[in-house]
Amino acid sequence: MKLSIFDSYENLSAFAAEQILNTIKSKPQSILCLATGDSPKLSYQLLVQEVIKQKLNIDRVHFVALDEWMGVSPSNSGSCHYFLTENLFTPLQIKSENIHLFDAFAQDAKKECEKMNEAIRALGGIDLMIVGVGMNGHIGFNEPGASETEYAHVAELDSTTQQLGQKYFSQRTALTKGMTLGLAHFFDAWKVLMLANGKKKSSIIKNAFEGGISTKVPASLVRKHNNSEVLIDRDAASELADATKS
Ligand code: F6R
Known about the structure:
Bound molecules: fructose -6-phosphate
Structural class: alpha/beta
Order of helices and strands: EHEHEEHEHEEHEHEHE
Shape: globular
Helix content: 25-40%
Low-confidence stretches: none
Number of helices: 7
Strand content: 15-25%
């Protein structure tokens, strides 16, 4: 694992966008797995700008959503579907066959997860997985205590996620379950890029990087991944011991 600390969210995001760009350039048929939320938002916007500026052909790239709130419509601006469409798929004019999203209304959610697993398998696996860090340390909707060997599954969201998830929604929304890629996908991904910024993440970042490596704090598992890079800003790093701050 490589941990890098940036002076600002802007610099962190520019670096992340460059990493994503480099992945696509070195493998034009890359499979990218994408978290949504505040952490990767600017990285995606900068990525879009660069792809357009450099006239990069990304026709062969496939995009896989990391997760989705169950029962939330794609037209709801708080859904992962909406976020990725707005921030990436529409501006980059991605063909629908290259987009792999969870259906939040699937009749059989287990089957929907199996479908996602199969799509990822058929594509040859995830090349780059971009993840954020929840305030409870979750990765995707792999909440504290999630299995390290599970692939896509339905997750019961813990109370922190149910409450803090409200920030994405314009009105109070029931957020009890999610569909998520599993920690087995995380470990299988060729590379993981983990992003966290802001003072509010400093305590969970300290836990994840200076506490034990355990599924009790899923983000700590990034230390066990054999090709992972963690990008955090100074605020998120502010509770880490001095040695790691340079
Ligand atoms: C969202 C996701 C979540 C977020 C995490 C951090 O697709 O997978 O695990 O990455 O909750 O969210 P932000 O970045 O909004 O602080």
